[in-house]
Every structure is written in C-alpha cells, then in structure tokens.
Amino acid sequence: MTEPTVVATHLTLNYRKTPALADVSFAVGRGIVGLLGPNGAGKSTLLRIIATATSSYGGDLRMLGRDPRNAQDRLEIRRRLGYLPQEPGFHPRFTAFEFIDYVAILKEMTDRVRRHAEVRRVLTAVGLADQQGKRIKALSGGMRQRVALAASLLGDPEILILDEPTVGLDPEQRLRFRELIADLGENRTVVLSTHQTEDVAMLCQSVVVLHQGQIHFEGSSPQLAALADGRVWSDSVKDPRAVAAWRSADGSYRNLGMPPDGAPTLPPTIEDGYLMLVQPTAGAAVAA
Amino acid sequence: MSTEWHATQDEILRYVRQELPFPQVWSVDAHLGSCARCRAVLAGATDAAPARRGWERLEDELHAPQPGRVERALGRAGMSEHTARLLMATRTLSRPWLLSAAVMLLLTVLVAQASESSSMPLLFLAVAPLLPLLGVAFSFGPGVDPTYELTLVAPISTFRLLLLRTAAVTATTTALSLVATVAVPGAGLVAIGWLLPSLALITLSLVLMSRLDSVVAAAVPALLWVGVLVFSAALPGDAPVPFTTIGQIVTAAAAVAAGLSLSLIRGRFESHRPSSFTPHVTTRRLS
Predict the structure, then answer these.
(1) Which is the most buried residue in A256, B61, B81, B258, by most CB within 10 A?
(2) CB of B63 less than 8 A from some CB of A
(3) Do A55 and B271 touch (CB under 8 A)?
(4) A247-260 tens-digit pLDDT
(5) Is the CB of A284 inside 8 Å of chain B's CB atoms?
C-alpha cells in the first residue's frame, strides 16, 4: 500500500446514545477502497466524518497527515477533498453549469475565467459537456448523479469520498460510472461506499466491511471471497442448513454455509464472503 | 471565416498580458473567435502560460452561460460576480418567496387601514420584524438549503456565507416592509418601530444558529417577540412596550449584545454546525 492518506484510529460516534460507529480503525492510501456493508452499517456516518462534515466523534483521524479537528488543518483538508454525499442536493433553478460553478465558488475558486475552465473540465470528465445549459430539474436521475460527481471533482482533489454513487443508476449508467471512478482512482485516494458487491469486485483494490458500526473485514477482494472457501455448494433444493441460499441462473440453488459431507463445493465470490460476514448465523459457519 | 480587420501584434500582446482596456478587449475577444490568422499570431506571440490564460478567457467569453438579469444587476451595482452567484442559491431571495412576503405585508397594511385605531397598526408592527427573520431562517441550514451538506465540507467560511445571505435577505425584505410602512395610515414614526426589533431578532437567531437548526434558531426569538407583544398589550399605555422610547432603547441594546456575542462565537460556525443527516443505525448497544 502507498503512504496512507486517511488513517482512522478507534473512531466512535454515538447517535442519541446508540453507537453508530464503535472502535473503527483502518488506513487507506492511494487507490480505490470500497466500504461495504448493509443499510445502517455506519458507512455514511464514517464517510461524513472523513469528509469533515462532523467533528463530533471519539478517537483519532488523520487525513493527508492533518487533524480535521484543528481549524487550520481542516481548512487545508477541505481544499484537497471531494465529496459526493449519499443524497446530493441541487438548486433546481440552476443549470448544470451554474450549479457546478456555485460549488466551485464554495471551494474558493473566485477567478471567473479559471473557475469556468474548471467547471467545463469536470463536466467533460463526466460526459455532460453537451448538457451544461440544461436546468437540473430537467435532467434524469443518472445525469444528476453525474452532475454531483462532477462537483466533487472540482479542484482535482487528492481524496475523493463517494457515498453510494451508483444508487439509482441503470446498468449502462453504472458501467460508465465504474469506468470513470476506475480512472479517478489511478492517482488519488477514493473511498467508495456501497452495498453492491459488484462495484467492489470491479473497482476496489481493498475492501472494508462495516457491519453494525464495526469493521468486520479489511483486506483485498480475493481475501474477502476466500472467507467463503469450502462454504458454497450447489444443490437442486434449498438446503435448510445453509445460512443463505438463492436460486442461480441454471435453476439450481447456491447454498452458503457448512456444506453436507461429500457435497462438491463451488469457487466462492466476493458476495459469498460478504454474506458470510453479515448474515446473522453465518459467523458460526465461519467459525466451524 | 475572413474578417475585414485584424488585431495588431501590439493589441494581441496587450490582450494576453491583460493590459488591453475595455471595451477594446471585447473587440479582440470577438475577433479572435472568428479569425484563424489572429489566433495563430496569439499562439506564437507569447510564452505558453499567458497565452493559455488568454485562450481560457476567450473560451469563457464564447461558451460560458450568461448570468441572469438579477446577477447582472448585482454586478452593475458593484457586487463581485462570485458573490452574486452565491446569492442566487438563496431560496428566500427567489421570486415566489418575495411575492409571498409582499402579499403578507399588503394584508397587514389593509388590516391597518380598515382598523379604527389606525394610530397603532399592531398587526403590521408585529409581523414586519418576523418576515426578515423567516427569510433568514430559510436561507441557510439543514433541511432548507439543498446543498447544505456540500457547504459543510467546503473550504468557504460558513459564517461568511451565512452573513452574506442574511444581509441580502434582510435588505430585501426590509425594503419591502419599508414600502409597506408608507402605506400604513397615520402612524407617523411609530410605523417604523419594527426596525430595531427586527435587527435584534435576526442577530439573536444568528447567535442561536451556531448550535441549533436554523428554523429552530429563528423560532425561539419569534416566540419571544410574540410573547413580549402579548404581555405588553395587557399593560396600561397607548403603545406596547417595544414601540415606546424605552422599549426601543432596550431593543437596540439587545441587538448590540447579540452582535457582540456573534462576533465572539463565529468560530463555532466552522466546526460544529447542526446537520439534517440522521444515521440509519442498526448497531447493537455495546456492553
């Protein structure tokens, strides 16, 4: 791994006395790290902390070697950070260009000519150069998501935080998004939150699985898949011993758990490994 | 496409050094957009950085969307273009919002005109300070500004942005209220008795916004204002206390005190802003 750009140590955050994050520690460097977990796992909470949207957390966080709790450090981090929130808001009266121009001003770009050049650059990067004059309210959901991504790319940030960027996109749009994010991860740190294992499998050099506010796994995609080694088997029926089972394309059941004696096992996928971690009864199967 | 004239070498050099005065620069801008020969001169005349800068400016003149009428008007009034763009994102400066405020004021004026005791237009005086307060409450904060989450993590000073929007909303709604004041019959100077309370209420709400949601932060002084009016209406005297000389002095002192407090706590706006984000927590309670 390259020099860590984000180092979290024992992060905790309580929401009305209920822990939303509990003792979360990890370090990420350049490349794309996938934050995987079910709804309510604490992904967005963690990303908001990293994005400096809140400083009400316990533990320690260092980003680009700086402490977000320190006012001067926080300002410097914000200048080098891009953030796509889970539910990006828009001013519907603005056009795509005007909206990104507005965000660029929030990012302290006050020189009109340079700012407009940057707005055109990010709009081109997300494939919306031809739509720059359209009002936000006239754009499709996928296009709006691309506008939000374009806004996060302003200033070529060293750390890019993307919270569920592919939610609500159709398969083709999702593919385009993945290509774009893969390119972005070449020379910066991208922290990508998702509950879609395909996103992680296709994009991420490393994976963190967050479940119930705690880190349950940190490693590579193959290592996550390997958690289900010898735990996946195929059968014509749903095996009651399986912790999870679903019908695959050929009509047979893909069972996950402790296989019966003699059952031929299948090569595991990242989804199998992930389910082994987050299914309520899967922990026992892993331990067995 | 050929053109009848060409920019001189000197003009192009001064153009890339940004030394060309207006409106000459616009002529050269427009000309470069249509003349390949002058563009070639431009490319060869200078070193890369200033030339690129010139190209960017030309590109911007040719392709950037033109700002709207209000933005242009603000620019002509001396406001920087980026400040004007920041204000355009203020919901409570939108036409529907201002129209609602104007209708509200018109109604209070009509009530004052219809009232027999028009020497003290109480409804108007009670409502006039609340309109700017309402405008400020809905101009910035979680749940009312769709890009609030982005603003939270942007390097721009939250406090500065809040003050900017507050000033714009206050100026606009105050102007509307002043126009309405003229239409209030026979109240004399009493009719502008709402100005100081308005200032005090807004400043107090800004102080509270350092910790509270903006709507809640405005609701507290608004309720306080209504409470004071109701209480003072029960007291003997021609006018409710806030509109007497003593009341105005006390209100001014409260506004100054709130302003000083705001100045002291302005750093809080950069780190501990309230948020509309509610985590969907499924975490187990840890033993």
Answers:
(1) A256
(2) yes
(3) yes
(4) 888 888 888 988 88
(5) no
